[in-house]
């Protein structure tokens, strides 16, 4: 691990797809520009449609230019891209791919280090990995790594089956399961904020924290992902992976060292300590929503059931709010509220840590109330932290006023935060699996989520659609916190 310019051959399955175009090629380009790739690297794109190397290189250039909004300054970058047309379901065509990989490894003096990046629908994962092994592509002199996209199964059973299939060809240490939230700068910053600041860690427990709120809201609807999304829904698409990963990072114990295994062990312990929700308790802890028509920034938009490739009677949730309890010494009694949805008021991912009130309000005669202290971690699009405190109101005798201490990570001139995919690809090349999800985390997350999705799949939501596009979700999501005497902190302006 940690060799600075890793020598590797990257094979991207699904190279003509949306993910490769929008995220992977631009990320490889940025790594190249920053000098993070050695001279010994090449990329092979794989998909069914017939393309020549030149056509593929033009396609890659275009994707980079679309992303950087600039003309590609160094055309030698794309000369390292090759294309191989192949139907991944046909074993026979893998032999030609093998020959191509061997030839490129010789040309670019790559010592047999191969990354197989599966940017394709998950139904192909098992087939591809089994063919990679049976046709000898995994038998290499260097290292081999498999990168797979979400979703990893649709419940614990299907995830176990998928894991069994890919483990026939790759060991757990060779599997890099992408959760792109783990590549985000401020998600990676959660650990540093917690473990490098003496003022937070002593307070980071049920004696001083009243609740923690995590919101990930989007203004977009399902766009052209209706076919996938209508079978997935917000619980599987966002909660099982991204939201629970953020909960784990916020709640874990300090790792013994910052090694991959030590951090993952602590995260897994949190996921295992989540209080299981039985079928009967789902309504008590979780709220589902589906957007109807409404307005986003003044523009009228259609309801979910009217979107392309969506069942007009769809029972799929586009919004989830939930209350999670972590039954361990540190967190007993502290609710973690999560909320995520499409077509909400604004695009924002934020974590709000609400501290408990001071034991006694000395200022109640002069001020309406003393505001609770909040630590807000802005994940996206803003990146930074805000600490909400109380101070004396200028001039007025002993009246309190809330003040904010702000740190904005992406406002500083010259800091251009690397894209999550750029960091994750680089980590994978260096063999650092810290910011990828281990199988134990995947299994524990599905085990938590499964009872909820079972209940929702088997009961029709009579009130769907139950929130207007452009709102912050259904009323019941607010009631979930009101029952405990809390409310969602607003995401805009005041935060
Ligand atoms: P996509 O746009 O539908 O692309 C699918 C790719 O697979 C295309 O390149 C297609 O090319 C290729 N393909 C399909 N069947 C094939 C076959 N039998 N043999 C060989 N190639 C085949 O999908 P995507 O949006 O890029 O998503 C890819 C994966 O990333 C999925 O697992 C998705 O859930 C995940 N993901 C995507 C995003 C995103 O922003 N797009 C975000 C997070 C996760 P041909 O038609 O030429 O064969």
TrEMBL record:
Entry GO CC: cytosol
Active-site residues, as the UniProt record annotates them: 242
PROSITE patterns: G6P_DEHYDROGENASE
Binding site for substrate: 180, 184, 218, 237, 342, 347
Domain annotation Glucose-6-phosphate dehydrogenase C-terminal: ranges: 192-489
InterPro entries documented for this protein: G6P_DH, G6P_DH_AS, G6P_DH_C, G6P_DH_NAD-bd, NAD(P)-bd_dom_sf
Reaction(s) catalysed by this chain's protein: D-glucose 6-phosphate + NADP(+) = 6-phospho-D-glucono-1,5-lactone + NADPH + H(+)
Protein name (record): Glucose-6-phosphate 1-dehydrogenase
Cross-referenced PANTHER family: GLUCOSE-6-PHOSPHATE 1-DEHYDROGENASE (PTHR23429:SF0), GLUCOSE-6-PHOSPHATE 1-DEHYDROGENASE G6PD (PTHR23429)
Free-text function comment from the UniProt entry: Catalyzes the oxidation of glucose 6-phosphate to 6-phosphogluconolactone.
Pathway: Carbohydrate degradation; pentose phosphate pathway; D-ribulose 5-phosphate from D-glucose 6-phosphate (oxidative stage): step 1/3
Gene: zwf
UniProt entry keywords in alphabetical sequence: Carbohydrate metabolism, Glucose metabolism, NADP, Oxidoreductase
């Amino acid at each position: 691990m940690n060799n600075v310019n890793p020598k590797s051959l990257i094979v991207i399955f699904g190279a003509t797809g949306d993910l490769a175009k929008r995220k992977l090629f631009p990320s490889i380009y940025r790594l190249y520009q920053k000098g993070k790739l050695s001279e010994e690297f090449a990329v092979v794109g794989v998909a069914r449609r017939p393309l020549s190397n030149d056509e593929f290189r033009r396609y890659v250039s275009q994707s980079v230019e679309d992303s950087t909004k600039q003309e590609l300054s160094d055309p030698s970058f794309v000369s390292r891209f090759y294309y191989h047309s192949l139907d991944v379901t046909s074993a026979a065509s893998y032999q030609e791919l093998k020959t191509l990989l061997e030839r490129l490894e010789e040309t670019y003096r790559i010592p047999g280090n191969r990354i197989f990046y599966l940017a394709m629908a998950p139904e192909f994962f098992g087939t591809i990995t089994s063919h990679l092994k049976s046709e000898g592509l995994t038998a290499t002199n260097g290292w081999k790594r498999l990168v797979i996209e979400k979703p990893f199964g649709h419940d614990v059973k299907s995830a176990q089956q998928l894991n069994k299939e890919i483990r026939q060809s790759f060991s757990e240490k060779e599997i890099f399961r992408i959760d792109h939230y783990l590549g985000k700068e401020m998600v990676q910053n959660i650990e540093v904020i917690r473990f490098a600041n003496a003022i937070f860690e002593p307070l980071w427990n049920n004696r001083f924290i009243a609740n923690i709120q995590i919101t990930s809201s989007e203004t977009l609807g399902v766009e052209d992902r209706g076919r996938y999304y209508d079978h997935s829904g917000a619980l599987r698409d966002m909660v099982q992976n991204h939201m629970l990963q953020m909960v784990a990072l916020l709640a874990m114990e300090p790792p013994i060292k910052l090694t991959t295994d030590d951090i993952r062990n602590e995260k897994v312990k949190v996921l295992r300590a989540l209080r299981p929700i039985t079928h009967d308790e789902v309504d008590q802890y979780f709220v589902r929503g589906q957007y109807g028509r409404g307005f986003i920034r003044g523009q009228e938009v259609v309801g979910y059931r009217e979107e392309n490739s969506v069942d007009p009677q769809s029972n799929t949730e586009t919004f989830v709010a939930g209350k999670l309890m972590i039954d361990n010494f540190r967190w007993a009694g502290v609710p973690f509220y999560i909320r995520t949805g499409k077509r909400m008021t604004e695009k924002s991912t934020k974590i709000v840590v609400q501290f408990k009130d001071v034991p006694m309000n000395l200022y109640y005669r002069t001020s309406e109330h003393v505001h609770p202290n909040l630590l807000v971690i802005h994940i996206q699009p803003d990146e930074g932290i805000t600490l909400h405190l109380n101070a004396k109101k200028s001039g007025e005798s002993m009246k309190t006023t809330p003040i904010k201490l702000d740190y904005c990570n992406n406002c500083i001139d010259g800091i251009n935060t690397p894209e999550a995919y750029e960091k994750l690809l680089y980590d994978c090349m260096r063999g650092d699996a810290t910011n990828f999800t281990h199988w134990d985390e995947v299994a524990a997350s599905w085990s938590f989520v499964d009872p909820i999705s079972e209940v929702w799949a088997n009961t029709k939501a009579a009130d769907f659609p139950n929130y207007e596009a452009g709102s912050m979700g259904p009323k019941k999501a607010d009631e979930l916190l009101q029952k405990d005497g809390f409310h969602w902190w607003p995401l805009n302006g005041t935060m």
